[in-house]
Amino acid sequence: MIEADLKAAAARARAAARSLGARPRADKDRVLDALARALDAEAASPGSRLLAANASDVAEAQSSGLDAALVDRLRLDGGRVLAMSAALRSLASAEDPVGAVIGMERRPNGLLVGRTRIPLGVIAMIYEARPNVTVEAFALALKSGNAVMLRGGKEARRSNEALVSLCRAALAEAGLPEDAATLVPPGGRDEIRVLVGLSGLIDLAIPRGGEALIRFVTEHAKVPVIQHYKGVCHMFVDEGADLDVADRLVENAKLQRVGVCNALECLLVHEAVAADLIPRLGRLVELGLEVRGDERACALLPVARAATPDDWGREFLAKILALRVVPSFDAALDHIAQYGSNHTEAIVTRDYGRAQRFLREVDASCVLVNASTRFNDGGELGLGAEMGISTSKLHAYGPMGLEHLTTLKWIVYGEGQIRGG
Amino acid sequence: MIEADLKAAAARARAAARSLGARPRADKDRVLDALARALDAEAASPGSRLLAANASDVAEAQSSGLDAALVDRLRLDGGRVLAMSAALRSLASAEDPVGAVIGMERRPNGLLVGRTRIPLGVIAMIYEARPNVTVEAFALALKSGNAVMLRGGKEARRSNEALVSLCRAALAEAGLPEDAATLVPPGGRDEIRVLVGLSGLIDLAIPRGGEALIRFVTEHAKVPVIQHYKGVCHMFVDEGADLDVADRLVENAKLQRVGVCNALECLLVHEAVAADLIPRLGRLVELGLEVRGDERACALLPVARAATPDDWGREFLAKILALRVVPSFDAALDHIAQYGSNHTEAIVTRDYGRAQRFLREVDASCVLVNASTRFNDGGELGLGAEMGISTSKLHAYGPMGLEHLTTLKWIVYGEGQIRGG
């Protein structure tokens, strides 16, 4: 797509967003239902356009030697498509954030003043080869009254074409503007640079994928960007902690799923409990975990190998755990402040005061006491489906749900008031 | 300040922010009180360091031929300094946004989940030759638990040095880290480029000043920026509107203060009331107003001159009003959607349905019915002092008060819960 075409498409998306913003919830839910029905039909027929398109994407990806894990994320089958339509139906049953009014207040001069929730406008979603993100992003944007421009990875090109045409058909069926969903054909990265430079047309860019993609978007963006870099999650086992709880939480946080941003990467152990807890970690080593410890940790767990300086603050996304013995609670806070990525941090403790201090003083999008880091997730925290997760503090910090795809504008009911001083 | 020094200063500010974030309200209010007392003392002695420094700035500005209006914004006297200390005392009496907890909820697995309000961290304030902004920005950042890096205009160099040393003394007196206030010596614009590139050290940049400064910051920023471009404010006088109200609101919105962003720039009049309202505007012309009208408007107001295409969507910041007759309510909405700057838009009407539609469909940070556009102001809307005003929708839309200098992090109280699926 050349620059002029992309700009024209963004302008059409903007016009669509304007009409979408004022639509009642029922109109938007009708689109979600129509899309769910269409996906059910695709899922039911093996030769459907969607499954055929995806099969070609997968075949091409395999022949081009794409990593097996990525091919798996790219693949669609009946079950995965039905999961999409189920998610659409549950989103249809979710509340509409748009139109809520908060803080109405009567001013001394009689003005009635408050704020109302409105859509952001046009959201640019930039992601990799995961077709399910196409439907998720469209649905969340639509439910919150936003138009979306979808630039997925080129490996999913055909799948995304099929999915976006289903989205546009559902919009048309419900009488909403088709341009509320626009596919940006993936070329190199030029179209990303152009897209995130369209200030005045695009209200927010959300990159979802590897750190390189996110840095590229941030580097070139002239529009606001929601960033999610690394999830370097720590767990601190405090003096006097229940070691059975610690043991269970470490196993869950590190091993329940290793390739995710809220998985544990570094365990900090108070020296007072190190001798009792660390040898127990041998059990996890038998489950395939590699432990990289500091000197004191290695002395207590001979199977561990010595950590190198760059193992601190590192996101392994693998069955690898950095392990450090710390002399105090404050030393743990200092380590987290230095090496954490503002994502997810947890403490295991029995001490009331230190639990409160940890919650207050640790700077991360989610801070937990006696719970697994894996709970930093839109669904687990009760937000519902998430559009992404933010590790920068502006607008959203942590999982982004429907509410984070909206903003508040001031509304004023007057009776002819004028301003004096 | 060379790049390395600036980076080191930002790192010190970051450390200060970390300790500031956990301080109780009383500590922060003590700083505000100490600074207020110090400013009272400066105001009382004509030869004080602050007034002497400001006098040198003013003398230099005048001899270098700085515009008289800018010199006036630069000038400090006893009265203006006392106004600063009064503002500090009222801020000290305002609630502390930090630490508030919202939406605590018990999840099905027993986790207690919610969000708590925290400071952003380090705020870079980039502004022009207005010394009062130095104290305002420091005070709002401090009250909300943030460290601030202040880069004011070079014309106010000596005044800002004096003010920031008072801020740092007040911090020290109350036992808080002096690096919560850092002056960035103004050179060319290099230090701005460096400052707004320090992602990881600076959490937010707020440029306050002319459009050129704001575009420069946005162009070079790698950290989030709160933007405030133009205030192209419209007022639409609807069919059947009370023309006495319209007349009064137009005068107040356009002439009460002309050089401000919430002043009226373009009046849209429904054709059904044009013949009755527009001739009345002659009264404002006698008050020195220049009207630039479309053909139909000029026919009704001969003293008006013909508007040129670039008068639509233009921020005059002067005694000039663009005037257009529109055939319908929808034509007015279209004009605003095309030419507005998302700042402030008002309607004068007696019609319930169109009032509701205007409030719902017009995209601006503040939308008013039967009230002057001049009310889009932190103080007037009940926010208290404002750090700036945002015309972009992320994080803040409209005036930014204390709350907008904070964000929400998730907190989770667990009892050993682990994640299943």
In short:
Two copies of one chain form a homodimer. With 421 residues, chain A is of the alpha/beta class.
Total helices of chain A: the number is 15
CATH class of the largest domain in chain A: Alpha Beta
CATH topology of the largest domain in chain A: Aldehyde Dehydrogenase, Chain A, domain 1
Oligomer: homodimer
Helical percent range of chain A? Answer: 40-55%
Q: CATH superfamily assignment of the largest domain in chain A?
A: Aldehyde Dehydrogenase, Chain A, domain 1
For the largest interface, the chains and their residue counts are: A-B, 67 and 66 residues
CATH architecture of the largest domain in chain A: 3-Layer(aba) Sandwich
Averaged pLDDT of chain A, please?
95
**How can the largest sheet of chain A be summarized?**
7 strands, parallel
Structural class of chain A: alpha/beta
> CA-to-CA gap between the ends of chain A?
53 Å
How big is the Rg of chain A? 24 Å
